[in-house]
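Example record for the data management plan.
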Amino acid sequence: MLANLGLMSFVVFIVPICWLNERYGLRFSVLTCAFLMAAGSLLRCIFINTETFTILAHIGAILVGIPGTLVLAAPSAIAATWFPPHERITATAFSQVLCQLGGVGSFLEPLLVRSPGPDVTTAELRSDIMRLMYIGGGVGVAVLVAAVVYFPAHPPLPPSISSSVERLNLVPSMKAIINYFSKVIKKRGQAHAHCSTYAKRSFAFYERPIMVSIIKSERGNNMLVDEQQFIYHKHGTNKDSTVIYWVCSQRKKRHCKARLHTKTSDEDFEVLKHVNEHTHSSTKDQVDAKVAHETLKEKVKTSHQSSRVLVSQATASLDEAVVSQMPNTSNISRNIRKWRQNLSNFPSVPSGRTGYAIPLEFTIIDGGKTFLQYDSGIDDQDRILIFASDSGLQDLKYFKNWAIDGTFKVAPEFYYQLLTIHVQQGKLSIPRVFALLPNKTELTYRRLYEKVSELLSSEEPENITIDFERACFNGIMAVFPNVSLNGNPSVWLMMISYGFNEGVCVMWMSVLNFSLLQLDIHMDQAMWIGITGILASSVGALVSGRLTDKAFGRMKASIIALEFGALGCYCWFLLLTLGMIKVTMWQVYTSVALGMTFSYAAVPLYFELTVELAFPCPEVVLGAFLAMGENMVGMVFLLLFFIKDIGYTWVIATLVTASASSILPLIFVKEVYKRSNLDRHSSNTSVLQINNPD
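Corresponding structural encoding:
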């Protein structure tokens, strides 16, 4: 029950501790929590009287549980504040390993407190317990003194670009995380009707034109098609060039000797002679494919649609047999780019954002429709360009759920990013507005959204899904104050996975002796099994943290691999418990130690990947949410022990189930590295310039 009091106080005080950290900083928060920990430990040292001790022990459990919020949530924040990007995961792992090593003390208690028995008196047992309380109180006071003597709030200079970026405030960040589960789509009927209209407009049915006698090859050469849909290649002419000789297109491939002789004429290809019959079936599919390809080439001359849309429209109504005769999609797209390059007369590349006017032909699409909706001016040093079709703007009015994202890789040389606004309907996310932005300041975002609002005649969205970027967040709230902002669903998937895995695993370590009793292993041996597991898991966390720091972009795969390893070890221990494998001590030690190692080695990766996904949400808030999920699951797990007469086999079965359940959410996590990408993208920029642009 004392353990559950600590967990419950953690959940209750999670928000106040996060607010304390935001309001007064990390140093003040650490000092406050160190004081509460020392006070809670000392309360249990005051009275020996049983009733008074019991009351104070419960109060002390609550006081010690409150700092747990910061202890479990702060490692990522400390790593981000003090360590460069290539050492952050290692630093997080080191902080969490120290917390894990504290668990060794619980397994050493049998060395300090004798087990009740006929040879141990009540007074001796009480004396042993009080000695243990005095040691705990002394450790609490030592930690408080150490924090008071030296715990600076931050280093003299930030170790990375991302560490100098201002984080979201507590309330907006929590609202943004939670709001993912509270999407409300209004005007669904209207949106659904408009979606049907949009689908018909965007995926227009392609109709093949009437067959002609001459079609073009991919290289632009003439090919003849007869009435039976056989294709012929030009083979030559007679001496006076009055007759053209044609051979079957399958002459080499199928040794077909069919030939045609026609008159030489630009308008009339009258057949003079038909020589030999075809040795194969009609090539109608090839004819249709050639015609579709030629029609697509003609459409490219007048359409500004993307190659993907053009290919989709060109093949929408064709049979699979016809499509199979066409070049693959990548080759067709390459051909479209080549055709456009040959047709276009592009102006010279500008030397900057200012001093040039965009030619009219690059501001319109589809036969003269406006595409460049806004240009802030040729003399604007922070020039903003907004591209959208008229139908795209109409979609933003009808669809009230938007998604906003920015990319740096495809932005032109003189622009910082290309920002896209998508409309969301069901599982579809369709880009409708494209904006080139010179930077990512709050002022720029505000200018962008104000102009978008103006283009939409002040129509507002109801929900916006964004990456957690403070400047973008503030810009949206300034222009659309009533909008509901939704966070990255992957953040919640990480929290669910972490809660299932660590919530049961950590609590299982504290009650490991109950599982070992099923194997007839008692406290004296259980102590060393637990210590071995903790030491091994601590080493595992440090190793996984360091290796992941070295191999950028592999956190999700690493977590899944570690979770599968832990699941295998827990299944091994379950088989030992059920008697399906003969019990030996080496198997017990190995299955427990390796299971704990794999499981705990994933902990720093969970924290760091969650921070990457939700950046720039405060690390402390995200860590607190992860730890809250862990503690809530752990609390339910411990409450199951109050059910009578169910034995203890369910303990390891629950661990196996929780471990397996933690893997599924990870599969759907969309792995992005917002914080690290910022550091890598800005690796040549001075941190001092970020803090002081002037």
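Summary line stored alongside the record: The longest strand covers residues 428-437.
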